[in-house]
Amino acid sequence: MPNAMIATFARFGPAHVTAIALTLFVPLILAAITLLDDSGAIAHIIRFLFAAILVVNKIVGLALWARYEGCTVENLAPMHLCDWAEIAAVITLIFPNQWTYELSYFWSLGGTLLALLTPDLRYGFPHSLFVSFFTQHGGVIAAVLYMTLALGMRPTPMSIVRTLGWSAVYFGAAAVVNSTLGTNFGYLCAKPNQPSLMDYMAPWPFYLIQLGLLTIAFCMAYYFPFFLADQIWSH
C-alpha cells in the first residue's frame, strides 16, 4: 500500500475511542454472561478464546510489523513490557494462577493501558497494524479485567512486592538488550516518537527515576480498590 494511502493514526479519533470502549465494555459483558452460568463451561470457553485470540494476533502482528516496518529486533523481539504482560496473561488464561495473574494485572493496567491511550503508532484505521495493535493491547487489558471480574482473581499486598521485583528484572533485561543491540525497549534510551505521558517527564536519563517511581505509584493505585473493599467488608 503506498504511503499516501495509509491512514494516519488520530489520537482519540473515532477509531481510537471505539477501541478503548471495546476494551472496557467487552469484558464487562462477558463477565456478566459468565456469572449467570453456574456450570463454569462458559468461563472455560471464554478463557481459551481470549488466549487463542492473543496468540494468533501476536503471530499475525509479527508478520505485519516485518512487512511494513522491517525485520528488526525492536519490531519482532518480545522485549516490550506489553509483551511480557501479554505472556503473563496468556499463561493465566490457560493455567489460572496467582503469580502470573498479578503480573498481568499490574503490567497491563500500569503499562499496556498507557500504550492503549497514547500508542506509539502511526497507522490509523483500517490499516491491519492498527487492528493488530489494538487487538493485542486492548485484548490483554480485556482479558485481565475479565479474569478479575468473572473469575474472582485479585491482587494481594504481596502482589505489589512481587510485581516490583519482576519489573526490576524486566527493566534490567531490557537495559542489557538495549546496550547490546542498540534498541529502545522499555523506552529506557529515549522517549516514544508519538506524544505520551513521558513528554511531561524530565530529559533522559533523569526520567528513568520518574519511571521507577511511577511504577510504584501505579501498583499502589491499582491495588487500592481491593484495599478499600477489604476495609469496608472487615467492618
What does this protein look like?
- The structure is a single chain.
- With 235 residues, this protein is mainly alpha-helical.
- It has one domain (3-233).
- Helices cover 70% and strands 0% of the residues.
- The protein contains eight helices and no strands.
- Helix 2 runs antiparallel to helix 6 (128-150).
- The N and C termini lie far apart (62 Å).
Topology:
Elements: H1 14-35, H2 41-69, H3 73-76, H4 81-94, H5 98-117, H6 128-150, H7 157-181, H8 207-233
Helix pairs in contact: 1-6, 2-4, 2-6, 4-5, 4-6, 5-6, 5-7, 7-8
Write a short abstract of this structure:
70% of the residues lie in helices and 0% in strands. The protein is built from 8 helices and no strands. It has helices spanning 14-35, 41-69, 73-76, 81-94, 98-117, 128-150, 157-181, 207-233.
